[in-house]
Amino acid sequence: MAEVGIFVGTTYGNALLVAEEAEAILSGHGHKATVYEDGTLADWQRYQDKIILVITSTTGQGDFPDSIAPLFHAVKDQIGVQPALRYGVIALGDSTYTHFCGAGKTFDALLQEQNAQRLGEVLLIDASEDPEPESVSNPWVEHWATLLN
After folding, report:
1. 32-41 tens-digit pLDDT
2. Which candidate in 7, 24, 42, 84 could, as Cys together with 49 as Cys, close a disulfide (CB 3.0–4.6 Å)?
3. pTM of the full structure
């Protein structure tokens, strides 16, 4: 059983819906998952040697939603390398915008720079093709859950 912290960046609620579905799927696989809608650096640090799933939408020009921007900057500015951290990223966006899934891609790039270990590939969900993001994320989370053991 793995412990998974699910850190959410949402504006209109889609990323939170995806996170709640992911929490249920991971729990169904015997993992302990907790959703953090306004996660803090202290919350993040509890998972340094565990697993983190970042689920974030993108606003503006590839920007983070207000609910996760402070956490991203804290991780960037206050944490150095974190090689014991294993993580995954689900990025929500709209391909009709220039910076499609920019927030999720930026968070992934930061964690790669910090030597964290990504489990699986980053999932990019396109709102213009998939108006119900959980229909894309749920199968991905089902597979991702098998990588946690």
Report:
1. 999 999 999 9
2. 84
3. 0.97
